[in-house]
């Protein structure tokens, strides 16, 4: 059960009780040993990691109710990837909440690593009418939302909702270069990721250091697409992080980055877009 909008509850299907699921961080070259313990008495579930080369029919196979399955695969491609339940109908499993982000840290890092002062994670997902296959397939999302996940001790793990990251913003200090690992888990919509009041100085599409772009205003994230984006915040204030598909922003896809002289939340009112 999670509050996806003020006073509204969604009985999400989850990995470990979160939607999106827990952030996974591994190093390029690691071998993943993944065990799925299916605690759902009613239906199979599975795991599809976009970060690996594997045999979908074997390595992403369904795990039956009350059973466990263990799978092994190498993570040899650096980047920011989606994971999701791949059990049919996949649309229902993703739309009900079985999605998340896996970061495979590049062996040689990013060329801008030394410039970065603060790092955050943001995930975009959609919510539809509860477990309504017709709405998933033919409707439009009721909400389009952001969540953040903890990269280090003290960071938060939030679910995808319309309000948490507005009421309790991300915080940075004037002059910081901020890095955000972003991922659009969909299931259906493209995201146009934009930060009001800055330019995305460095962007790595899908988080691969080889896909280095400079000076973007907006990054397009296809359904399942990710990126690492970096920008410098030069002046204090509330910066709205949005999907610049403004129907999505209107439905919830806004987070606030509060920039202060101290780098601490000063408690002042945020007034973003
Ligand atoms: Cu599932």
Automatic annotation (TrEMBL):
Transmembrane segments: none annotated. Residues 8-108, 151-255 form the Plastocyanin-like domain. Homotrimer. This is Copper-containing nitrite reductase. One of its GO terms (molecular function) is nitrite reductase (NO-forming) activity. Belongs to the multicopper oxidase family. It catalyses: nitric oxide + Fe(III)-[cytochrome c] + H2O = Fe(II)-[cytochrome c] + nitrite + 2 H(+). InterPro entries: Cu-oxidase-like_N, Cu-oxidase_C, Cu-oxidase_fam, Cupredoxin, NO2-reductase_Cu. Cu cation binds at residues 45, 50, 84-85, 93, 98, 244. It comes from Saccharococcus thermophilus. It comes from the Bacteria. Its EC number is 1.7.2.1. Pfam families: Cu-oxidase_2, Cu-oxidase_3. The keyword Membrane does not apply. Its cofactor is Cu(+); Cu(2+). Keywords: Copper, Metal-binding, Oxidoreductase, Repeat.
